[in-house]
Amino acid sequence: QNVEAGEPLREAVFRGALSRLRPVLMTASIAALGLIPMLLATGVGSEVQRPLATVVVGGLASSTLLTLYVLPTLYGFFSRGVK
User: Fold this and answer.
1) Which of 61, 60, 81, 68 is closest to 13 using CA atoms?
2) Considering the entire predicted model, what is its pTM?
3) Tell me: the pLDDT tens digits for 4-22?
4) Closest alpha carbon to 50 in 64, 36, 29, 62
5) Cβ–Cβ under 8 Å, residues 61 and 75
6) Chain centroid to CA 70: how far?
7) Which Gene3D superfamilies match (predicted)?
């Protein structure tokens, strides 16, 4: 939308990523905080819950980094020649 509005590509990508920063971080952090009881479980079934929670939290962290840093960078890189 920012590029279509005539903004320079680099600034448009930065503004787009910045506008998504708070919602993405809030969503991922709430999901990760919801898994804390599974990470700290010590009772029956915890041998299954802990690794599962670890993988899910790791996936949330990596997808958050991908969404906020890698995808805007790739968009800026691949859309340079497109007009």
Assistant:
1) 68
2) 0.73
3) 788 888 888 898 899 999 9
4) 36
5) no
6) 10
7) Multidrug efflux transporter AcrB transmembrane domain
